[in-house]
Each structure stands twice: as C-alpha cells, then as structure tokens.
Amino acid sequence: MEGTPRLRSAYPTSPVSSWGRVKPNEPATASRDSDHSGSRGTTSKLPVMPQTLKSSEEAHPPLIPFEVIDAPSQRLYVLAAYGGITAWRLYDFWKLMTDEADPLWLFMKWVLVDGAFLYGLPGLRIPWLEWSFSTITVLFILHALLDGLLMFRVPIPLQTWLAAGVKVLYDRELSISENRVKPADILHNASLILGKQIIHILPEGSAVLNPQQQSFCLGSGRNSVSLPIRINQTTPILMELLRFDLDAQHNETIKLSAGQLKTMKRQAEKKRAKNDQHGSLYLDFPVKKTGLYRLQKVVDESKLEVQRRHSDTLVVTCPKAFVRPTGLDKCKGQLSDFSLEVEGTPPLKIKYSRTVNKADRGFSFQSIQPENLVSPLIRQRTGGLLVPVNNVDASWARPHRISVPLNESLSTSGEWLYSIEEVHDACGNIANYTQEREEWESSTKGTHLEQLFRVHEKPKAALDGRDQQHPLRVAKGESAHFPIHLVSPYSTTSESTFTFTYLFTPAEKLQPDGEHSPEASMHEVRIQNGQQLSEIETPGLYSLRSISSQYCSGEVFEPTTFLLLNPPEPDLSITSDNIYDKCAGNPIGLLVDLDLIGTPPFTVLYEIQRTGEKQTQVRFERIDRLRGQIELRPQEAGHYTYHFREISDAVYKGQSLRSKNLVLEQDVKPPASAHFVGGPTRKQACIDEPASFEIRLQGESPWTLDYEVVHGGKRSKQKIKGIETDNFVITTDKLTDGGDYSVTLTSVTDKSGCKIGLAQEAKIQVRHQRPKAAFGQIEGKRGSLMLEGKRMGLPIRLAGEAPWTIKYRNTDSATPEIWEKSLSYSNDIIDITDQGTYEILDVRDAICPGSVDANARFFEVSWIPRPQVNVTETPAIARHGDIYVQNDVCEGDDDAIELLLQGTPPYHVKYDQRLTPQHGPASLTSRDFTAGLGVASIRMETMQPGIYEYKFNELSDYLYDHDPKKYQPLIVRQKVLEKPSAKFTNPGKTYKFCKEAEFGDDIIPITFSGAAPFSAEIRIKHHSNPKPEIINIANINSNHYEFRIPHRLLALGNHVVTVHKVRDSRGCQRITEQDAPYVQVIVADVPSISPLDSQADFCVGERISYTLSGTPPFGIFYNFEGLDRKATSGSTTFRRIAEKPGNFTIYAVTDGMHECKAKTQITRMIHGMPSVKISKGQESVIDIHEGGEAEIIFDFWGTPPFEFTYTRSTNAVKGRKSQVLETKHDISYEHTKVIRASEEGTYEVIAIKDRFCAFSTQRAEGRTGQKLLQ
C-alpha cells in the first residue's frame, strides 16, 4: 500500500513505526518467510510493484514542514483560528445590535475575511484540508450568506427550520392507539395493488442484403469488404447468395452453413447496442472478388424459408486517377496541354483544383463515361434489382480508363498548380486524395496527382531615348552600355537573365542612305540582374533585333535603330578689348570673345588673380553656342590677371587649356560709386527721431556725396563733402511728421572729379503717434471682485505695433514689486492672484517707447467674502466659550437648531454627529446637507439617550470650496434624557382561574425606571372586545408597584394586560402602542370538544380532528377496539391518524384546571382501504400470435361496488423506460372480474376505489376525490 498513488484530497497514509517498516533494500516478504518457515516448506515471493506515482506529500510538500509542526497539530491550529474568527464575527454582531454600526461595512469586511481564510487555506497544503476550488467556492458562498443574515440582522426562523428538519428526519404521528406511526407507510401501502399481466405478440422474420444501399469496392490497398445482411426475428441455418462475374459472363452460388451463420451472428450480437437487444442483427459477409451479389435463399430454425427482399449489391474496382505529366515551364498565353487519367466504373466524376499564385479555384467534370455506354446506374437508384433475374449482364459495371484532356490558356504569369482532389464512380465509391488514411485510403496526394506549371512573362524591349535622330555620343576611347530598356516587369528570379541581339555596321561602311551594309555583323548580349555583360564603343549604326528570356521569346518595340558617334574634342581661342571710363578715360575692365569647338553646351573655367592678394578667384562660365562673350569688370582698382584653365562640353569633361597659355592682364581703375550697405532697405522710425543709414563708397577718396529726403511732396537736398573712408553713415534730421519718407542717393564724386549719377533709394516709415496703454473696463468700471486664491485676468488696451512690453505693480502690496510682461495683442490681459490696486507704470511697443493713459492707469481688485455659518441665538441655547449648548430634551421628542449662513447660495455643509450614550462605546456619524437660502434648520437626533455633539467641520458655497485653513468649526452640544419605562416583573405570565371560582382581586407586580414620582396608564383588553378598559394610576413614588386588577373588569376568556403610558417627574413619557410587555389573565369555562368534520365515516390513513375549548392541557378519554384510552393535548386542537379500521368514540374531556370533567359522546367509523390483485398478485407473461386473445383476472377486497383504473404500457426493455400506451376505467359489482385483451403490452392497475375509500399508486389521495358510491 506504500506504493499506491494517492489523490491530493485523499487521507494521508497512517504513520508506521520504524520497527514495523521494511527497509527499502530488503524484499517485502523477508519477514513473512521467517515467520512461516516452520509451517511451509517453500514460500514464493510476490513481485514488488514499482512505485509509479509519488505520494501527495512528496509531490506537493506542505508549506510548513511536518518536521516543524506535524499534520494533526496544523489542523488543530487551523480549527482554532476558525473558532477565533467565528467568535470575532459574533462579537461584531453583538456590537451591531447595541451600537447601531454600519451593517454594509461589516458585511464587506467579513466577506473579505472569509474569502482570505478559505481561499488561502489550500495554499498551506495541510492533509485533509486540501479541498478543491469548487468546494472552497461553495463554502465561501455559504459564509457570505451567513454574513448577510448576521450583519443585516435578517430574522432567522430557526424554530420553523428545526421543525421542518425533524419532520424530514423523523416523520411520525400519533395514531388512535396512541402509537407513533409513519403516515407514508399507511398512505403509500404498495400491497393494496399487486400483480401485472404481460402479453407478447410474436413477430415474423426477414432478411435483407445491404439494406442501407452502401457502396463497396476493392483495390487501392483494400483486399476485402464485408457485405451487411440484416436479419430480423429469425435465426438462419442456411443462406445462399448469387455472384455474377463482371468480366466473364457466368455466375456462382455461395452457400453459408449453419456454423458460419452461427459465428457471424455471435459477432453481430457483440456489436449490437446494449439498449437494442430485441432489434435487428447485421451479419457481415466478407467478399474478396468483384461482382454483382444477390441474396437468393434463407432458411431458419423451423426449416422454413425466411421472407427476403430482392436487391442487388455491386462490388466493383475502386476508382482512381492520376495526371499524365508534361513540361514544367510555359510562357504566358500558351495552352496547358495535359490530361487526367480516370479509372473506375462509369459514369465517373472527378474533382480537381486549380491554384494560380495561391488563389484557389475548384473545377470538376460531372459525367465522364465512354461513348455508347448503357448502364442502369445512370438513372437514380432507389434499391431493388439492377438487372433482370433471367438475363444477367453486368459487363456495364467493368472498370474503364478514360483520358480527360485539359487544354486552357495560361493567361496569368506565376505558378499554376492542378491537383486531383476526389474521384467518384457510378456506385458512389469515393477516392479522396486530400485526407490521409481516411477510412480505408492509405495513400496521400503525390506527384502523380499534381501538375505544376511555371508561367513566365514574355520579355519586351525598346531603345532608351535613342534613335537615328538622337545618336549616342561617346568620347573617343570610352565605351557605353547598349541603351536598351525592358518594358515589362518579371515575376520570378529565374527570369533575371535575358539575351538580346543587335545588328552593327561601322560608320565607314554605312550605305549612302544611312542604312546597314551587307557586311553588317550580328551580336548577342546578356543582361543579368538588370546589368549588361558587355558594352559598345565603335562608332556606327546599331539595330536591336530580338529579346528573349530563359524560357520565352520576346517582342521588340520601336525605336530599334540608333547611331553611335565620337564627336571632336573641345577647344577654345580668345580675343579681348579694353573697357574705358567715359569721363576719366581709365580702363575699367575687359570684353573677351570666346571661339569654341566641340559639342555644346560648354563650361569654361578661369581664374582671377589681383596683384597683392594671395587668394585666387575661380569662376565658371556656361556657353550654349560655339561663340560667346564675357565681360570682366572688377569693382576695385588694381592689376588683374586672368588664366583660362579648363573647358568641358556635352561629351568631354575637364579638358585642360594650360598648354595653350590663355592669359589676359589689365590695370583697372573703376569709376566712383555709392550704395546702401545690404542693398536698398526699408526702415521704421519713431516720430520726432532721426534715421541713420550706412553707405559703402567706391573709387578714389575723398568723395562728395549728394542725397535727398522726400516727404509729403517736399524734397530736401543734402551734400556731404570730404569723405575719406569707404564706409560712411548718413543721419537725417528729426522726422517730425508721420508717414513715408524716401532717402535717395543722387550722385557721388571722387578724386578724379567725375560726377557719377546714382539711383539708390531707401524707405522710412515714420509712426504717426507713440504707443499707449490703459486698463480696460469690466461691466463699465475699472474694478472687479474675484475669488480668493483664484487667478484673474485684468483687461489691457494697447495701441502701437506688437509686441508690447509693459511694467505694472500692486500699490497695496507691503513690498511693491514691479512686474514686466510682454503682450502680443492690442486687447490683452495680465493675470493676477492677489487683491489690491494695480497701476501701469510704463509701456513700449516693438519700435518706440509710449505713454500711459492717466485716467485709466489704475484697476482695483477685491476678494469675494468666504462663506460663514452661525447659530441663531434663542433662550433655548446658550454659548459656553466656543461651544453652543442646547437645552435638554426627552428621548424621542422633536428638536432642531437654526443655522445662519452667509455667502453665495447654495451652501453645502458637512458635520459629524457624535453620541456618548449612558452605557456602551461612543459612535460617530457623518452627515451633510445643502441649503438654498441663508437660513437652514437642523433636526436634532433624540432617538437614543446620551450626550450629542454636532461639529460643523466643512462649509462651502457656490463660489468657494471648503478650506480647513480658513474655517473655524462650529460645535453644538445637547443632552437627550432617557424615557421612563414600566414593565411587568413577570412578563408573559398567565394568571388562570375558572369562571365559577370566586377569587378576589389578583396582584400583578410592575417595575418602573426613571425619576419618581411616576404616573401610568394600564389597559386591559378582552379578546372579544376591541375596546380595552383603561386604568390611570398617579403618584407612584417607588420604582416597584403592586397592581391589583378589579374583578369587575374580568370576563370569561382571555385578557391581555399592558402598560400603555408612563410619565416621570422630568416630563418625559413613554407610550407603547405595539410589542408592549404584557401578562395574560385567563378566565376559563367548563372545557368542551367538537369535531371539525361532519362526516361519520373515515378511511385508514385519514386524520380525525377536533377542536377543544378551555384551558390547556386537555385530557381526552375515548374507546377504540373495545379498549378505554386517554390522550393529552397541549393545544386547543386534538388530531389523530387512523392506522387501522374500527369504531372510535370520545366520551369525556378535561382541561388544565382539572376542576371538572365534561361528558360527551362522539362516534366515528374507520373503514379499511380497498385492494386489488391481477393474476393472483403475480407477474404473468403470456405469448400470443397476431389476432389471438388473453384473459386478465382482477380480484377485489373491500366494500363493492369497485371502480378501478388500469393501464397498458410497452413491455419493459433493459435500459429503456416503459411508456404508457392507453389508460382505461372500469366498474365491478363483484369481487372478481375477467377482461379479454388482444393487444401487446403490460397491464397493471394504478387506482382502486370501493364504496368508502380509494387508493392510487400515482399519488396519495387521502380523502381527495373520495365520493361514496350509491
């Protein structure tokens, strides 16, 4: 048992002491061999079973090892923890009952505690406590329900549940004989209806070959098939089958002996379902030859021939198909040109798929058959014979091989895959090539079932931008790629290599008309990965002839012919002329003529070197013609040298000219000039301020500069003489008018005395006014209110050009700080957070300083007051320091305080209500309310005595949220006085006496609590009078009082005495309307007993009930079966169940006072239950043939006439429930009745009724439906 694998939830193995264990290395039978060596000569050792699974402790060790704490101790600790949690839960429940705590919070708390404990318990892995997740979930739900019942104080009807549980576990009632009996044994007495009659109708046998018309074939790995033969209600001993050969026109008879049939039947019974023991049997007859099979004869055990249905079954060769392969590579637009070979019994159907670039499209041929085929399988087969009985010709079922050509255009490049999916023959046999080893098919789809084509695009080519009008120019001694362009893309990498051919004639051998000469040569070039493997360099005529890929010939588009030329190398020659100043006659530059040879456009590179400067200037000149001209005119005086270094044209690049020594030299003295630094400009200026411009002068100093200032149609001319520096600054006079000014340089004169006219002009835009700043208005004034601690934007009005920079301050600040801010809009704002008077000090826009409007430079900001709360002072409230004290109030009386709220409504107030009761811990409750006006009334809590303190700790209004730093809580305190109470010293006690007894006034002690003296109102209510009698008692100076009931107020029956009202000296009173403590005063009369049912006849199992009047307990005296008996009843109802028939008579009754005994005479007759038996109470089986009859005998016991109901049901089959077929009702006036039946089924009685009583097996009827028969 040590090696037995255990579940995690199983009990742990029992501990074994060390001396009783077998060592691991010793055989398990060693000790037993030594013990029994004397009694046995030899002992055989049992083989030791290997331990395949680890124990639970080894596979999942506990969280706390057993070496630290053993398993029983761990379970004990868990139980102790659960007990502690339960005690804690009950403590919270007791606090909830006394302190009125929040039940929702306690419920959520205990749901979390129970969930943590239960779901965490399996993690300890303690044996016996490793419960499953579903078990833990059920326990958690039960604990959650318990938490809800306890924390929400849902009343639990324990007494009702206990009574219901006892009723289920111990269902006993007192019978008339004063014994406890089970009512179910009396009401459900199965011996009252006994017996059943079973009738079988014997069926006729049959045999059918292949009843489901299945398809069978041989081949493709299948050597034999089993033909099903269905037999029904017969045991055959001889069977003959005919086989017609499909190839040779002959037949053979196959006989199955009794032994073969017995073996086949035994195998069929093993396969039959357990719940179908009486159904048909299917015999499997194996065949290994193709042919047409027909069931000819069947003989059963009675030597009679069994009825059979004529039908033929074909066993043919299994269908198959394959692809007749062809080439792999095709060109786009070619035909597929291949065929599918199909073999089987026609007509055949083949299903194949065509996948083009992984896009699947299925095709199928529905009917494939040879010409002139005549076959019964062409028409729809519904069973029966395929060929006539006397003329058997099955040659149409022979297999045929048919070729199906597939010849379609391959219109899309890429991979085309044709794949055979299924082949169907005429009999319904299917060869499925898409599933591996499905049923009998063992082969999978292979290469003989697929045809793959790789369809390639045809290449297309043309010349790339070249023809006879646009030759390919190549420098001498250099080569170029053949200008071929592939027009269409290619889809496969194998087509990255192409071959094209071209015809070539050298330039010297061209025909006079420019065409190829007869000696033209053909050349072949390969293109691989988009790059040519050879280049061309010889001048001449080239013509593209063909293009082809590895698999396909292509197409060549125009243009196809071009010329390759070697143009002449570029060359340059120059001539130059001096350019003179017209005034001074000095040279100021060169005019150079360029004569070029080559292929335009040309690029000429030349260098400029000034004497005295180390740096050389490099210039490029582009010329688009064979002749050009450039002008070399330096800006500064000096000796200049020009070197022409290189020339390039459209074909040759970087041809050196150094060998030609093309050099030009000149001394240059440029004329005087002047211009604004940076070019003509446009400035903005402030009004009443000058404007300045920087001038750059050229020529020989000194210079004289003339300029003029134009504004408003007026022109002011200015002249400056003796300027010695190249850079000079001119400054205008103050610009006193706003608008546009123009400063124009008119002329300049240098040392030579030549006056040079100028046209340089600059613009000045002068502002018409200076920028201004002012505070804007809010609602017509420069002042506003804001929320304390919030941000506010003050409106600023600005004039000028953005952006503006303003300086402002808060004049009310203790340390005035000047702020500076940049503004971008003419109507902008500045953000502030403090109250005070704000002043704008200065303003400046993007260009000029400005001014501040004296009437709008100040803006005043004030805070909106925060909300406040106070108590309305009345004579009922007094202030003691920071606490308001409200007058004392009695428990349950209404009281309220009035609060005064200041601020912006609505107001939201939160306060804490703290109760310090006379007994028990204090409690705290948070409340809040919203007030729409400045006055709010708060209802004071008075439901429980104690000292109440109301602390208003949060206040907010429409504008301000609560701020604890700026709010002083308001506290109101009040004492609630406990109500006085009065209760009976012995509550619930019943005071009894008889009506005839003459007792004096009875005394009922009452206990008061509160401040004496007390006054009380006591009510005495009789059960028959809705209006109670009221007694007022005043000046009760003690807490204990003896109340005497006046006898005149007592009448016959029950009286309830309650204390309705009590008042003490403090003015507090308690009025009890419901559930008040009470005592009962019962004035009893002579007891009596009355039957609840008026009937005199009862049945066994029925309950006889009586009502009693008087004071319980009652004593009932009665006679049954000739014996006097006594019963006791603790209530006003006496009921007994009738367990057996007899005469039941009650003759006396007493009540609890035992003063008198009332005589009576109530008699009831108890009748026995009727009974019935079929077939003498036994289960009888009768077999009859179709049309026969059987007798069913019914025997009755009871008082006639008898009414009975019986049913006919299906005969019982193992594993299947019997079903009722029909229900009949009949009457018998005798104790025996015979009924004839001819239908199969099980007959049994379900209900019986005699003159007095009835019984049914379907349900316990009792008195329901019992009606005396007349």
TrEMBL record:
Domain Nucleoporin POM152 immunoglobulin-like: 566-670, 887-976
Residues annotated as domain Nucleoporin POM152 first Ig-like: 206-315
GO terms, molecular function: structural constituent of nuclear pore
InterPro entries xref list: Ig-like_POM152, Ig-like_POM152_1st, Ig-like_POM152_9th, Ig_POM152, Pom152, TMD_POM152
Domain Nucleoporin POM152 N-terminal transmembrane, chain residue ranges per copy: 70-154
Any one Gene Ontology BP term: protein import into nucleus
Region (Disordered): 1-47
Ranges for domain Nucleoporin POM152 Ig-like: 458-560, 770-856, 1170-1256
Nucleoporin POM152 ninth Ig-like domain sequence ranges: 1087-1164
GO terms under cellular component: nuclear pore transmembrane ring
Superkingdom of the organism of origin: Eukaryota
Pfam hit, one: Ig-like_Pom152_1
PANTHER family (alphabetical): NUCLEOPORIN POM152
Name the record gives this protein: Nucleoporin Pom152
Lineage, highest ranks first: Eukaryota, Fungi, Dikarya, Ascomycota, Pezizomycotina
